Predict the structure.
Amino acid sequence: MKILVTGASGFIGFHLVKSLLDSGYIVVGLDNINDYYDVHLKYARMAELGVDQSKAEPWGVISQSSTFSNFSFIRMSLENRIELPKLFKKEKFDVVCNLAAQAGVRYSLENPEAYMDSNMVGFLNILECCRHYAIKHLIYASSSSVYGLNKKVPFETDDRVDYPISLYAATKKSNELFAYTYSHLFAIPTTGLRFFTVYGPWGRPDMAYYTFTKSILEGRPIPIFNNGDLSRDFTYIDDIVRGLNLIVQEGFKPSKELKTNAAIYNIGRGKPVNLMDFVNTIGQHLNKKARINMLPMQDGDVYTTWANTEALQKNYGYTPKIDLNIGVKKFIDWYTAYH
Ligand SMILES: NC(=O)c1ccc[n+]([C@@H]2O[C@H](COP(=O)([O-])OP(=O)(O)OC[C@H]3O[C@@H](n4cnc5c(N)ncnc54)[C@H](O)[C@@H]3O)[C@@H](O)[C@H]2O)c1
């Protein structure tokens, strides 16, 4: 089976590629290696996959990994409506995992256009390629942010998600609608995964756990919003990747009783953690006490996230395994070694 993983230089994409290679699949990674955060980290992830910077950097060139005979990489943007179909035609993928997107909630207040380009135009191009090149299964990243300010917990995929409070969330909800339409019109099996705050080694420098760690080490105060009264369903990267790998392996399974080939699943730990407990766990592993700067709630942020993952457990046997304490330790070990 040949799989296209978009966002392969990104945090989740990189880990997914590694896991799929270990399972013996043939994988092509795609990424535009944009500078939303430090590109050195993206190139370092690629180097781990056997594609060094000189091979990853040129646009539109497929480079063979020097470590994995079943991996190659191409630098390309999803918005490239000329080259993307050529890649699909040439490579004849069976499955597509679309993880490339403009991520981040707060940045969508500053640079809305980036979200339109990558998440809307880019996703439409992926759907068009899936339609014209007979892709057997499209798996794509949605987000827990689609639940907005919903009060009922845990969040279930049957809950109404019509009130996104950031443009990022609106684009992710739109992806689910686009995917439904393409599944219906062109019989493409699609599986959308609502990820819940993913953390771990090789993580994203724009995310709170990463900036918290940096601030604690530098002795700078950490800004904590809503006076710390926030919780997140932090999910360790290996649990996310194990879930994705299971879905690739077992193929499409409807998430509801409806006769539709568009599935939506939550994928998370299912155990929300108070933000202050999370900060203190990082502090314990760094042997340093965090300094806190309490601030009011900020725009676009949600109070809590909490995944109900029963459907994924029932259909794919997904069980999150990594506890917060172990996950944070693994992240801190990586962080201190990398930096
Ligand atoms: N990390 C999380 O906690 C989390 C939570 C919910 C949803 N998600 C979603 O999961 C996916 C992966 O997230 P991540 O944390 O790995 O983010 P990431 O930013 O590390 O990875 C995304 C990658 O996509 C690439 N990219 C962006 N726009 C592109 C485009 N137009 N064409 C080609 N490549 C492009 C970027 O260069 C980046 O390497 C994203 O869709 C994100 O929205 C992540």
